[in-house]
Amino acid sequence: MSSTTPASQPLPPPTTKAGQEGLDALLARPGQALIGLDFDGTLAPIVADPEQARAHPDAVPALAALAPKVAAVAVITGRPAEVAVRNGGFADVSGLEHLVVLGHYGAERWDARTGEVSAPEPHPGVAAVRAELPELLERLGASQGTWIEEKGRSVAVHTRRAADPQATLDALRDPLAGLAGRHGLIVEPGRMVLELRPPGMDKGAALTGFAREIGAGSVLFAGDDLGDLPAYSAVDTLRSDGTPGLLVCSGSDEVTELRERADVVVNGPEGVVRLLRDLADRLG
């Protein structure tokens, strides 16, 4: 066992009745359970350069122990599916045959069984925005300290390296919203990042669609950022429709909205990995 993650502990008790019902359903009928997970900030620690983000070292072993015992594990991320697969180390791992990666908020799908990615054509507005962004940032005096991340089906502007990351983020919100709107895109805010992407792409739609596809009898979703709120809302809707669900927050001082809505709060990716491993142990 890796020394970076403490030994197995009792599962943290949910703080809500709905959360307890979700956990009880998962434990009672694991073969019908869907485990949904964000990547950055949930399975992988947040780093200044997103290209350097890698899954927690114990994430893949924990997932490989849990995945065969549930209906499916879905990593739902704004990243391209192939990038998440590479940075997560998910390919060709025994035990992960039940894992899919829904990249670009579900616009792309990688299936561990085939190792292939399926996806529609990209939105034309993304290329137009990508071409205009450098000049816009230069004109706004924000070219220093910001970083443009090319994501294929979207493009993101990070401010974490700026002298004042929050002030820079706030100053860019309206100009980037205007740029996105002119090309039929929307802006999704996150932890020191603004992502310009097509409308209709969100983690809630991806989670709901996949849950219905596999006929999930219960759903757990773990996330850490504003982009995960649609998935939280999707779990709430599934609950109201009779599918029990458990909301897990990968704790962050930067984002409080998820913490306030979660049934269980854990200590970042290390806590998520511990929860996954403890679930696998509990399921025997």
Keywords:
alpha/beta, 8-stranded mixed β-sheet, 4-stranded antiparallel β-sheet, 38% helix, globular
In short:
The chain is an alpha/beta fold and 284 residues long. It contains nine helices and twelve strands.
Commentary on this structure:
- Helix 2 packs parallel to helix 9 (268-283), helix 4 packs across helix 5 and helix 6 packs parallel to helix 7.
- This protein has 284 residues and is an alpha/beta fold.
- The protein is globular, with a radius of gyration of 19 Å.
- The model is unreliable at 1-6 (pLDDT under 50).
- Helix content is 38%, strand content 19%.
- The strands form two sheets. It has an eight-stranded mixed β-sheet, sandwiched between helices.
